Amino acid sequence: MGPPVAQPMGQPTGPQSPPQGPPMGPPPGWPPQPSAPQPRRKPTGLIVGLSLGAVAVLVLGVLTIVALNRPDPSNTTAGDLNAPAPAPTSAYELPPNNGSSSTSSDEPTSSEQSTTSSEDSGPHKILELGDHPLLQDPNAGLQNQVCDLPAWASTQQGAEAFFTAASKCLDAAWGPFLEAYHLPFTSPALHFPTGPSFDTECGTIQVGIATAAYYCENNLYVPFKGLQTDQYGNNPGVYLALFAHEYGHHVQEVAGIMDAAWQKIYAAGQNSAEGLEMSRRKELQAQCFSGMFLGAHVDQGGTVTREMYNKAWSDQETRGDNTSHSHDHGTNAHYAQWWRAGAKDNRIADCNTFSAPSSAVS
């Protein structure tokens, strides 16, 4: 008997409109006017797992390299990889009462209004980490929705169709959620490079086994030649999970979490113990966001099937720092743990890696 099926979610109580390697960086030019030269940034996204060995790539700006990493089968515990994947046990809502109109007694006076800065007049990023409003409500999560994806085909055209449809599902899931927190949601632009390299605001990126997807400043690049479809074949659940991880970095960017994290990394030094830990917290949160997405859409009547979900669940243990021999993404065990936390319960508060103890993000 398989794991329990997710229950359908009701209407949200709050306002309806108020996706292995180096981590992705901030927007080009960040931080503004540094007092001293800053080190070059690595992409803050992750080489998620479409490579046999992740290659560290130092680049300037906000970017993400995704690559699926497979460890030596002899180093993998078969019992763990073959364990059944429990489905989400419950569904959650948009943040309640967030952005709703206030009572007359709570409204600011005219003098207070005149002193309100222009950045508070509309949706804007909030540069916070563990205390970010997005991560506080224990009952908030993505709505259960139908996501219809075309059948996976290991061709350039097939991959473009699959990821384009997946991006629309991710927009529909994360857009209303972020807007409910008064955050400035925009969809990332998709690009499907076909050459040996491609240009981004973060520099020229070489396509190889370590480049399955790449995020830079509101742009998501998916070079088909980097997906290693000859090895992973017809495995849409694995591809969807890595794409949702990369999209998770876009969520962090929109929210302001990414900028806040890079401030800490710059202050500590990218290769310092503190800087590497901050990088792991970013990557593991994107893992959790990816799990939330699949958990909210499996068994909802669309094409995100239980088989896709189960394969994505098992695949998470094959990626992480144990596989890539790096220190900026988290151990394989933690990589799987955080993805599964998001997938099983679909609670964004469970994705607060920035408040987790160091032992949970090693």
From TrEMBL:
Keywords from the named record = Membrane, Transmembrane, Transmembrane helix
The domain of life for this entry's organism is: Bacteria
Q: Where is the composition biased (Pro residues)?
A: 15-37
The biased composition feature labelled Low complexity covers 100-120
The UniProt regions of compositional bias labelled Basic and acidic residues, in chain numbering, are 121-131
- InterPro entries in UniProt: Uncharacterised_pept_Zn_put
| Principal localisation | membrane
Where found, per UniProt? Membrane
Record flagged with keyword Transmembrane helix: yes
Give the residue ranges for region: Disordered. 1-43, 71-134
Q: Does the entry feature the keyword Transmembrane, yes or no?
A: yes
Q: Which residues cross the membrane?
A: 46-68
Topology relative to the lipid bilayer, per the entry, is:
Single-pass membrane protein
Return the Pfam families for the record.
Zn_peptidase
Matching PANTHER family: INNER MEMBRANE PROTEIN, PUTATIVE MEMBRANE PROTEIN YPFJ
Q: What is the name of this protein?
A: Neutral zinc metallopeptidase
